[in-house]
Design goal:
The structure is a single chain. The chain is α/β, with parallel strands linked by helices. It is built from 14 helices and 14 strands. The protein has a six-stranded mixed beta sheet, sandwiched between helices.
C-alpha cells in the first residue's frame, strides 16, 4: 500500500483537527480549502508565506481514509460529542414522574352512596391528590392488633369514617366482608376513623370492639377536615402511590374499587398535594421567616420543607406533652445506643431552656420491656429525662423519616412542616432560636387567619 507523503499528512492534520470532529454529530466535514494552522506564538511574529497563500486543494476522502487506516492513533476521536456527554449531570429516575394530580375514573353508578351535595363536594376536592398526612391528634384504638398505625406505603387503603358515639362501627367489617378472600401477596388496609363526636362514649365502645379493621380516633377533627369527612359516614379509596382515587362509595363499591386499584401495575408516581396546601404553606413560611438548612443528611431521608409523617405513638411512658403552638422536636433514640444516651444531658438542657416554646419527644422503637431493661443497665429512670418519652415498637414514624441511624432529630413547626433534621450534637441555639421565633410568628398568624376564614362547616374551629 502506498504511504501517504509528508505534505499530505500535514494537510490531513490541518484539515481534520479544526473541522472534521467539530460537528455536533461527529463525522467528517465536506472537503474545504485549509486555513493556516493556529500558532501559540504572538500573532505579530507570524508572517504569511507563499505556500499558505497558495495551498493546494484539501485531501480527498480516499486519502483521508488511507491515512486513518495506517495511523489509527494519530487522529483524535470525537469524545466531546459522545451522547453520554450530552446527558444531564444528575439524571432523573425514569420510574419516578414529576409530582402531579392523578386522573381518576368515575365510579360505577351502583357503587355510589347517597350523599348530600356539600359532603360530596368536600370529598371530591381531594380526588387525584395525595392522602393528607395524619395529624398528631389521630390516635389508634381498639384491639391489641389495631393500637399502632399500619404501614400504608405501597398498599391500597380504604378509609371509612364512623361515629361509634351514635351508631355501631359495623360498616368497617361490612367492607372487609365485601372484599372477600384476598390473595396472599395482596393487601387492602381498611381504616375506620372515628369523627370527633361524643368521644368519651365512642372510645369506650371502640376499645371493646372486635372489628377486623384498623380503628383510630381523630380527636380534634383536623385530619377529617383535610379528608373532607364530616358528620355522615363516608369513605375514600387510596391507591398504592397514596393518591385518593375514589370517594363517597357504598360498602360493595369501596371493595370493588379497591380490587381495581390492586390490579393496576405497581408504578412509582410522585403524587401532588392539593393546590390549596401548596399555595398556602410557602406563603406562611415566608411570612414567618423560617430559616432553611441545606447540610447533607446521611442517616435519614431529607424531608426538610415537606409535610411531616404523623407523630405515631403506641404508648406514652410519660405524660403526653402539650404541643399546641409549639415547635416539636422528635428525638429518634434507643436505650441500647451509646451515642443516644450520651446526648441525653444535651437534650435535657434544650427541653428545660425552651420549655415554653418547644415540646421535646424522645421516641424509641423498643418494646416496653426492652426499654426498661435498657434503663436499668444504665442506672437510669424515666424521670432522668426532662422531656416526654414514648414508644413506637413498629417504628412507623421512624420509617416515615427514613431513619437509618440513631440518634436522629427532626424538628416540626406548628403547620406540620419539617424544618430541621440532624444529630443532637448539631442542635444548638444558633439553630433553635430562629426556628422558635419563626414558629411563634406562624402560630400568631395562624390564629388570626383561622378566625377570619371560619366557614362553620368542619370539625376543627
Amino acid at each position: 500500500m502506498r504511504k501517504t507523503s509528508t505534505a499530505i499528512l500535514s494537510l490531513v492534520l490541518s484539515s481534520l483537527l479544526p473541522s472534521a470532529y467539530g460537528q455536533s454529530g461527529g463525522g467528517f466535514a465536506p472537503p474545504q480549502q485549509p486555513s493556516p494552522p493556529p500558532t501559540e506564538t504572538p500573532a505579530e511574529s507570524v508572517k504569511p508565506t507563499a505556500p499558505a497563500q497558495t495551498a493546494p486543494a484539501g485531501p480527498t476522502e480516499e486519502e483521508i481514509r488511507k491515512y486513518e487506516e495506517e495511523n489509527p492513533d494519530a487522529v483524535p476521536k470525537p469524545a466531546q460529542t459522545k451522547p453520554a456527554d450530552l446527558k444531564p449531570a444528575a439524571p432523573v429516575d425514569p420510574k419516578i414522574e414529576q409530582a402531579k394530580r392523578i386522573d381518576c375514573k368515575a365510579p360505577e353508578k351502583t357503587w355510589i352512596a347517597r350523599l348530600d351535595a356539600a359532603d360530596q363536594k368536600a370529598l371530591e376536592e381531594g380526588l387525584g391528590y395525595a392522602l393528607p398526612p395524619m395529624t398528631a391528634k389521630v390516635k389508634w384504638i381498639g384491639s391489641t392488633a389495631t393500637k399502632s398505625a399500619p404501614n400504608l406505603q405501597g398498599n391500597v387503603v380504604i378509609i371509612q369514617s364512623i361515629d361509634a358515639g351514635t351508631t355501631a362501627p359495623a360498616i368497617v367489617d361490612r367492607i372487609i366482608a365485601a372484599l372477600g378472600t384476598m390473595p396472599a401477596d395482596e393487601t387492602v388496609i381498611v381504616i375506620g376513623v372515628q369523627v370527633p363526636n361524643k368521644l368519651d362514649l365512642a372510645k369506650k365502645r371502640l376499645e371493646k370492639n372486635a372489628t377486623k379493621g384498623n380503628l383510630c380516633v381523630d380527636e380534634d377533627g383536623e385530619w377529617c377536615d383535610a379528608l373532607g369527612i364530616y358528620k355522615k359516614p363516608v369513605n375514600l379509596v387510596v391507591d398504592r402511590n397514596g393518591a385518593i382515587r375514589y370517594v363517597g362509595l357504598n360498602e360493595k363499591g369501596a371493595a370493588a374499587a379497591a380490587k381495581i386499584l390492586l390490579a393496576e401495575p405497581k408504578k412509582i408516581v410522585e403524587v401532588a398535594q392539593r393546590p390549596a396546601a401548596i399555595a398556602e404553606a410557602p406563603a406562611t413560611a415566608i411570612d414567618a421567616g423560617f430559616p432553611t438548612f441545606t447540610e447533607p443528611l446521611t442517616s435519614c431521608a431529607d424531608l426538610r420543607g415537606k409535610s411531616s409523617p404523623p407523630l405515631t405513638v403506641q404508648k406514652w411512658l410519660t405524660q403526653e406533652p402539650n404541643m399546641k403552638g409549639k415547635l416539636v422536636i422528635v428525638d429518634f433514640f434507643a436505650t441500647w445506643c451509646p451515642p443516644c444516651m450520651a446526648a441525653r444531658p444535651h437534650m435535657n438542657e434544650i427541653a428545660q431552656q425552651y420549655a415554653s416554646t418547644v415540646a421535646v419527644v424522645g421516641l424509641s422503637d423498643e418494646s416496653k420491656s426492652k426499654f426498661e431493661e435498657g434503663l436499668r443497665k444504665r442506672n437510669l429512670k424515666e424521670n432522668d429525662f426532662k422531656y416526654a418519652l414514648a414508644l413506637d415498637p413498629a417504628g412507623v414514624m421512624k420509617q416515615g423519616f427514613g431513619v437509618r441511624g440513631i440518634p436522629s432529630i427532626a424538628i416540626i413547626s406548628n403547620d406540620g412542616i419539617v424544618r430541621w433534621q440532624g444529630h443532637p450534637n448539631s442542635l444548638d441555639a444558633a439553630v433553635l432560636d430562629p426556628l422558635v421565633a419563626a414558629n411563634a410568628r406562624l402560630s400568631a398568624g395562624s390564629t388570626k387567619s383561622a378566625k377570619s376564614v371560619s366557614t362553620g362547616r368542619g370539625w376543627a374551629k
